[in-house]
Structures are given as C-alpha cells and as structure tokens.
C-alpha cells in the first residue's frame, strides 16, 4: 500500500510539473501577444536581471536540463517571450554551474565506483571489468560533442545567429525528437540493465549526444532515446545518460564561466547570482531524482506529448505573430 502511494505521489508530482511548464509557456505566449511587441530571439542585448528572474531562470534550467525536453530550447524561448530579453552569458554560466553541482552531487558515489573500478582494472589489466567498460564508454562517448563544439567555435563564429537556433528550428527539433522517442518507446523491449552496459553503448549514446548542439534536441532526450533504441531499460537509459553527460556539461560550464568572468559579470547583482545558483542546484537535483524514480515505473509518453505540444505551440506562434 505504501509503495503504491509513493508511486501515485511521484506521478502526481510529474503531472503537476509538466502541466505547470505548459501553463507557464502558454501564459508567456499570451503576455507577448497582448503586449504586441516585436520579439528578437537572439539579437537582444543582455538585460539587467532581478533576483526573481534569476529564481525563475534557475527553475527552468534545473527542471529542463536533465528531463528530456531540452533546456536550451526553454532557456531560449521563455525569457524572450516573457519580455526579459537575452539573460546573457553570465546568467547562462551561473545556472549551468548549478546543474553541474547537482549532477556531481547526486552521482558522486557512482562516479567514485566507476573511476575507482576503472583505476583498479588498469592496474590489474582486467579490461573486462564492468567499471572499465563504462569509464571508456563515457570517455569515448564524450568525444563527438566536444569535437563538434570545437569545430563550431572555430569555424562558425556566428552560430548563435544561425537558423538552427531560430524559433522554428527549435519547434521542429522538438517535434522530431518527440516522434523518435515515441518510436523508441513503442518498438523496443527495454530489458537491459545497468550491469549489462557495454563500450558500444557509450559510443552510440555519445554520437546521439552530439545532436544536442541543435537547440530543441535536448542532450538528455537524444541520449535517452538512443538508450531506449538499444533496449536499455528506462531508468538505466536515464542514469547512464546523466553519467555520460557529466564531462560535456562540466566542460561547457567551464567555458561559459570563463566568458562570464571576462564579460558581463558586473551586470548581475550578488543577490541575483546567489538566488540563481541555488535555484538551479535545487531544481536540477530534484529533477534528476524524480526522473530516475519515475522511469522505474512509468513509460516516457508524458515527455513525448509535452515535446509535441511545446513544438507545436512555438511553431504556431512563429507562424501567426
């Protein structure tokens, strides 16, 4: 009875969370329509951010970074639709740092086990050890997104202005990923567990992770979808997705942190910085814990429908405005 009650509570929490995000987005669109102000999605200059805006941005980042609905899309769409404009590099770095702290904290024991086991395997030359396979899989799986990111930095200096980062592109990416997640959910058995992970899983999920460079795809969404296509059970796909994402998220956060220090840190008050960071840490941690628990007993259809709805709303907005 207690177990059923806990499951019901988790389901109720997930329903409220998804409904809340949907209502928040609809309210944002309505407000933007009423004000009838032209909105630029990428050209706006960074705005002065209040502590309340920092709290909301931390919440949005935390809930969407690890849940497969694309944090980049939500962080790009919601502030602009609310009339807040571009939060700026500094704010992006702060809330990204919060997500890094949360994922490291949540998976600290897993990381100790993987790195400790990999070190022991290296010393004993036991390269069939499970921890060694996971470690090498994470290392190799991180390379595609790092290489793609470096290539974009070097050869596409105006990538932020690219059509791939426009509202229509975000909407289409969200819809396409919803369809792929639906196919993966409905056509595979999802029976492989964490202790059955192989080096191949890390490489293939790493290739899928590279797609997250496109806003609207979602890093966790692309890797979890790949994991489901490889017959991983849902909780294992999410757990390995988070472990695989730690190096990429951390490196991206450090790059943004460097930009924050050199650019517009002075435009954000200390209170806003603290509130944003704490908000991001708390909601990122809660999102990780909730998602892994949720996927132990539920399928991913709630994310499929949310992503379809999000993409269709954003696409309709861009066509009708």
Helix content: over 70%
Oligomer: single chain
Alpha carbon gap, first and last residue: 51 Å
Number of helices: 12
| Number of domain units | 1
N-to-C series of helices and strands: HHHHHHHHHHHH
Radius of gyration based on Cα positions: 19 Å
Summarize the biggest pleated sheet.
none
Structural class: mainly alpha
Poorly predicted segments = 9-13, 21-44
Shape by Cα distribution: globular
> Proportion of β residues?
under 5%
Q: Let me know the number of strands.
A: 0
> What do the pLDDT scores average to?
84
Supply database-style keywords:
globular, 12 helices, 321 residues, mainly alpha
Describe the structure.
The structure is a single chain. The protein has one domain (54-320). The longest helix is centred in the N-terminal third of the chain and has 34 residues, at 2-35. It is globular and about 55 Å long. It has twelve helices and no strands. Helices cover 75% and strands 0% of the residues. The N and C termini lie far apart (51 Å). With 321 residues, it is mostly helical.
How would you sum up this structure in a few lines?
The protein is an all-alpha fold. It is built from 12 helices and no strands.
Question: What's the SSE blueprint?
Answer:
Blueprint: H1 2-35, H2 51-65, H3 71-81, H4 88-106, H5 108-124, H6 130-155, H7 167-187, H8 199-209, H9 219-229, H10 234-262, H11 270-295, H12 301-320
Helix pairs in contact: 1-12, 2-3, 2-4, 2-11, 4-10, 4-11, 5-6, 6-8, 6-10, 7-9, 7-12, 8-9, 8-10, 9-10, 10-11
């Amino acid at each position: 009875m207690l177990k059923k009650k806990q499951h019901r509570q988790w389901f109720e929490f997930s329903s409220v969370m998804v409904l809340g995000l949907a209502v928040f987005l609809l309210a944002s669109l309505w407000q933007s329509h009423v004000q009838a102000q032209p909105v630029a999605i990428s050209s706006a200059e960074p705005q002065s951010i209040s502590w309340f805006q920092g709290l909301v941005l931390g919440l949005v980042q935390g809930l969407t970074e690890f849940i497969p609905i694309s944090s980049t899309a939500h962080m790009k769409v919601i502030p602009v639709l609310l009339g807040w404009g571009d939060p700026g590099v500094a704010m992006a770095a702060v809330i990204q740092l919060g997500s890094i702290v949360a994922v490291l904290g949540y998976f600290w024991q897993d990381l100790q086990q993987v790195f400790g086991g990999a070190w022991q395997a290296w010393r004993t030359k036991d390269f069939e050890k499970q921890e060694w396979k996971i470690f090498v899989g994470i290392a190799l799986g991180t390379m595609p997104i790092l290489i793609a990111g470096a290539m974009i930095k070097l050869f596409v200096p105006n990538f932020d202005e690219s059509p791939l980062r426009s509202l229509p592109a975000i909407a289409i990416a969200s819809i396409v990923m919803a369809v792929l997640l639906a196919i993966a959910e409905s056509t595979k058995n999802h029976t492989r567990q964490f202790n059955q992970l192989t080096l191949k899983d890390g490489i293939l999920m790493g290739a899928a992770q590279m797609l997250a460079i496109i806003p609207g795809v979602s890093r966790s969404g692309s890797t979890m979808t790949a994991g489901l296509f490889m017959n991983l059970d849902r909780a294992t796909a999410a757990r390995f997705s988070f472990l695989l994402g730690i190096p990429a998220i951390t490196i991206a956060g450090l790059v943004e942190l460097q930009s924050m220090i050199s650019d517009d840190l002075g435009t954000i008050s200390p209170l806003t910085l603290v509130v944003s960071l704490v908000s991001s840490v708390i909601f990122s941690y809660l999102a990780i814990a909730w998602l892994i628990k949720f996927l132990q007993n539920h399928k991913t259809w709630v994310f499929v429908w949310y992503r379809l709805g999000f993409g269709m709303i954003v696409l309709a907005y861009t066509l009708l405005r």
